[in-house]
Amino acid sequence: YVEADENSVEDLPELVTKRDMWSKTYEKAEGVYVSSISNDPMHYMDDSGRWQDIDTTIVKDGDSYVNAQNVMETTFGAGGVGMVRGDSGAAMDFEVVAMAVDGETIATDGPSVPRVQANVIEYPSAFPGTTEQYIVMNGKLKQNFVMASMVDVSGDARHIQFVMEYDVGGLTVVGDGEVLEGSADVYDVLQFVDAT
User: Fold this and answer.
1) Of 51, 46, 67, 65, nearest to 19 (Cα)?
2) CB of 121 within 8 A of CB of 59?
3) 3-class secondary structure per residue, 13-48
4) CA spacing 20 to 30 A to 174: which of 125, 188, 192, 196?
């Protein structure tokens, strides 16, 4: 096997049965194979146990929006965001419920009609002057808070915080590199890790 980039294999036949989450394998010549390998997942396993190409597109599904052709199925609904990993079944639900300044709530999540474009869903004005944004990527979900205008707070305020309620199911919660027990206070980086 020889490692190759996607451009050098575009005209070669892929051996779909050789797929895994991280790679595609191509036959270059009789008995000579080339693999394209990624740091991010390239495939997800479907319900019949076959590796399929990931598609990060968010589509309407009843009253919700969903991305189902990925390592984790992600649903965006009225009650927040739900994610389920297809390979392990680990699940997590979360909702951003308030905006706070120095620990004091200044606004709760207001009604917002989502805007969807390809792999991005945005909730404009979810909080004062702030759009809550999610970007679906291969095997990941990125959350951003886009502040389009200044938030009216006192001059000595130190922190603007977004308060999240979550049910992590079979996941381990890690804040700034430390495994958390109980509630999560303020962390720069909050991760939810599949322990399986």
Assistant:
1) 51
2) no
3) CECHHHCCCCEEEEEEECCEEEEEECCCCCEEECCC
4) 125
